[in-house]
Design brief:
- The protein is built from 2 helices and 10 strands, in the order ββββαββαββββ.
- β1 and β2 form a beta hairpin.
- By secondary structure, it is mainly beta.
- The radius of gyration is 14 Å and the shape is elongated.
- Strands 2-1-4-8-7 form a 5-stranded antiparallel beta sheet.
- The termini are far apart.
- The chain has a single domain (2-122), classed as Immunoglobulin-like, CATH 2.60.40.1220.
Length: 125
């Protein structure tokens, strides 16, 4: 199975990476503490038929829940229309720390549940 991840850096630039769902192939995003931008996780390749319901988008650092500091509440995470893409905005973070972002969805037809993992690295550049 594969999950396609979409990182939207601006309206003009969109990067799409297709990665196997094995833990050693987790997508890594780098940003500065100042930056705030939209990211997306695309579950199209694993959902098949039916859409998705967003279960949760959470961020952790060393096992501690830091969702409110890293995932913006405005705009709140959402499923894009009738697609299988979940959009969320990353913000803040402390220099030289890595955060793990987990996006969980449920297939509206089969009830199957899927999780996409992204590492967010906060750097000076």
């Amino acid at each position: 199975m594969k999950i396609a991840y979409t990182l939207a850096l601006s309206l003009l630039l969109s990067i799409v990476l297709v990665l196997p769902t094995f833990s050693e192939n987790v997508l890594t995003i780098q940003k500065t503490p100042f930056e705030s931008f939209n990211c997306g996780t695309d579950f199209t390749q694993v959902i098949g038929s039916g859409g998705v319901t967003l279960v949760s988008v959470t961020a952790t650092q060393n096992g501690q829940n830091v969702t409110s500091a890293i995932i913006s509440a405005s705009p709140a995470p959402f499923v894009v229309g009738t697609s299988d893409v979940v959009m969320f905005r990353v913000q803040g973070g402390s220099l030289r720390l890595t955060y793990q972002i987990s996006v969980k969805v449920q297939n509206t037809t089969t009830g199957e549940q899927f999780e996409g993992i992204t590492n967010l690295v906060i750097s000076a550049q």
